[in-house]
Amino acid sequence: MSKLRIGLAGLGRLGQRYAENLARAVPRAELVAVCSPVESERAWARDTLAIPTIHDTFEDMLADPGIDAVVLVTPTSLHASQIEQALDAGKHVFCEKPLSLELEDCRRAAAHAAKASKRAMVGFVRRFDESYRNAFMHIEAGGIGRPFLVYSQTTDLADPTGAFLKFAPTSGGIFLDCSVHDVDLARWLLGRPKAKKVYATGTVAMYPPLEAIKDVDNGIAIVEFEGGQMAMFYASRTQAHGHDTQTDVTGTGGKVSVGRNPRADRVEIADANGVRNSVLPSFYERFAPAFVTQARHFVDAILDDTPFDLTMDDAVEATRIAVALRESQQSGQPVLLA
Ligand code: NAI
């Protein structure tokens, strides 16, 4: 197989970026089909992508024998069952994070993948970001001694229109939607430990409709891991300055930080008001190159039969921790994880 023939499901906010990347920036992939139940999204695909086949159902796309692998950028509630359907149809699968909002679905999909003849990977894009990779390699080389503490935050620019409120009820809440990235990062940078205890709390600072669904727009969390390592997370939907994702890892011999100044570019302005730079507006500007690297990693791993950097167990553990954080935030109690 010289190129991996891909069918992409989901052409929403992120799916369209995936389509453009797979069509133009992943040389060993060929985007041969897309599917979406929404006519305006299929029209976008017809107008934008030079691809032969556009389906209106996922099932029709799976029936196409000319597809080797499926990429899922569909709503999270569909991920686990679509992974299983794709594997049963004899396709390899890449799925956007998170694997599911429910732990049982995660476990079922992971068990299904373990028995399947084709392979499945859940993406956590930050692992493919150059700065996070460099930090990981520095830690692996012993650069900070034994790492024992991660602080990591995912904080989004406030949206005065509150448009995200439409998606909030199905997002799983701030910890499953946003902090799940930090959870996966923390495990990766600390040597993939399992969590034993979590505590989370939060507040509604700007968007009162979140109260009705027991969600918050600013959340903080503490995780204790089985090996004694610790993590602290902050997630926010209300930042005044921009998208501000950053991480510190502290070890016995030093500390490494990623993204401390979420600068949009290398311009720095100095005047009578001080020194300043502009800030990234959203996650996509921050991680655009990493999405391409992640897609290339998936394609290379399938074509060359090499391991994925992320296992299905990693995806299950990230959801297990994020679900416990949501439970703790809603109950006000710490959650012990067996
Ligand atoms: P969206 O709601 O904008 O797009 C979802 C897409 O799925 C739409 O095109 C919709 O028509 C399509 N769809 C719905 N049912 C379908 C079905 N049965 N078969 C095929 N397509 C179907 O959502 P968005 O923001 O693009 O998110 C998609 C996924 O990407 C989510 O799981 C989300 O967690 C993840 N995501 C990850 C980010 C990251 O930083 N890695 C950032 C944003 C989203």
How do you describe this structure in short?
By secondary structure, the chain is of the alpha/beta class. It has helices spanning 15-24, 39-48, 58-62, 76-88, 103-115, 130-140, 168-171, 174-189, 283-304, 312-331; strands spanning 4-9, 29-35, 53-55, 69-72, 92-95, 120-122, 147-157, 195-203, 218-225, 230-239, 246-251, 254-258, 269-271, 274-276, 335-336.
Overall tally of domains: 2
CATH superfamily of the largest domain: Dihydrodipicolinate Reductase, domain 2
Which percent band covers the strand fraction?
A: 15-25%
Which hetero compounds are present in the coordinates?
A: 1,4-dihydronicotinamide adenine dinucleotide
* Cα-atom radius of gyration: 20 Å
Largest sheet: 7 strands, mixed
Instruction: Please list the strands of the largest sheet in the order they lie side by side.
Output: 12-11-7-10-9-8-15
How many β-strand stretches?
15
Terminus-to-terminus distance: 44 Å
Structural features, described:
- This protein has 338 residues and is an alpha/beta fold.
- The strands form three sheets. Strands 12-11-7-10-9-8-15 form a seven-stranded mixed beta sheet, with helices on one face.
- Helix 4 runs parallel beside helix 5.
- The radius of gyration is 20 Å and the shape is globular.
- The termini are far apart.
- The protein folds into two domains: 119 residues, Rossmann fold; 177 residues, Dihydrodipicolinate Reductase, domain 2 (2-Layer Sandwich), CATH 3.30.360.
- Helix 1 links the parallel strand 1 and strand 2.
- It has ten helices and 15 strands.
